[in-house]
Specification:
- It contains 4 helices and 7 strands.
- The radius of gyration is 21 Å and the shape is globular.
- The longest helix is centred in the first third of the chain and has 22 residues, at 35-56.
- Helices cover 32% and strands 25% of the residues.
- With 183 residues, it is α+β, with helices and mostly antiparallel strands.
- 15% of the residues are buried.
- The chain has a single domain (3-170), classed as Secreted effector protein pipB2 fold (2-Layer Sandwich).
- The chain has a 4-stranded mixed beta sheet with strand order 1-2-3-4.
- Helix 2 crosses helix 3 (135-152).
- The N and C termini lie far apart (75 Å).
Length: 183
C-alpha cells in the first residue's frame, strides 16, 4: 500500500484512538489504538525514534535527528482534510483492534511497523497490517499520535488525580476512612 494520508483522532465515546490510513488508489485501513496499548508502546516508539539514526550510523549526533524531525514536520501538510472516500477496505470496514505492534528499522532511515489483532476466543481470523514508513511519514505519524495522546489525556497523571473515586452514593460500598484524634 502506497500511503497517501494519515489521520489519528481520539474518540472520547470509544476512549480509543482511531487511525485511518488511505492510499492514492482509494484504499483505506482503519486501526483502533487502546489506552493500554498506547501507554505501553509509545515509550518504546519514542526510544526507537531517538535511536533510529544509530541503527544506520552510530556516529550521528542526537541533534541531527532532532533537526531532521523538525524539518520533516515543517515540510508536512497537516492542513489538508483527510479524504474519507475510500472505495475498498483491505482489512474490512471495521477497524482492526491493535493488540500487538512490532517495529524495526526500515530502509533509508525509515521504520517498519506491523499492527496485529489477536483476540482470544474470537471466531474471526487474525488480521494484521504492515507498512514501511519513510522518515517523513514516521515523524508525521508520531506528531499526530502525540496530538491524539494529548487530547486523550492518557499520559497526564493530573487527569487521574482529578477523577473522583469516592462519592456519597458509594458510601455504603466504600466507607470513608476517618481520623480520630484523642486529647
Amino acid at each position: 500500500m502506497n500511503i497517501h494520508q494519515l489521520s489519528l483522532s481520539y474518540l472520547n465515546e470509544q476512549d480509543r484512538i482511531l487511525v485511518r490510513i488511505n492510499s492514492a488508489d482509494a484504499q483505506e485501513i482503519r486501526l483502533w489504538f487502546t489506552r493500554r496499548l498506547c501507554l505501553s508502546w509509545v515509550a518504546v516508539l519514542r526510544s526507537a525514534l531517538d535511536a533510529r539514526k544509530a541503527w544506520h550510523d552510530e556516529t550521528v549526533p542526537a541533534w541531527v535527528g532532532e533537526f531532521e524531525r523538525l524539518q520533516h514536520l515543517k515540510d508536512a501538510d497537516f492542513s489538508t482534510p483527510f479524504k474519507g472516500d475510500a472505495q475498498s477496505w483491505p482489512l474490512g470496514s471495521e477497524p482492526l483492534l491493535v493488540t500487538t505492534v512490532s517495529i524495526a528499522p526500515g530502509s533509508d532511515g525509515g521504520m517498519e511497523m506491523r499492527f496485529e489483532e489477536c483476540l482470544p476466543g474470537s471466531q474471526r481470523q487474525e488480521r494484521s497490517f504492515q507498512a514501511e514508513l519513510a522518515p517523513k511519514l514516521v515523524h508525521g505519524f508520531m506528531h499526530l499520535l502525540e496530538q491524539a495522546l494529548g487530547t486523550s489525556q492518557w499520559e497526564q497523571t493530573e487527569a487521574l488525580a482529578s477523577v473522583h473515586l469516592h462519592s456519597p452514593e458509594m458510601e455504603d460500598y466504600c466507607p470513608r476512612q476517618t481520623q480520630a484524634y484523642l486529647h
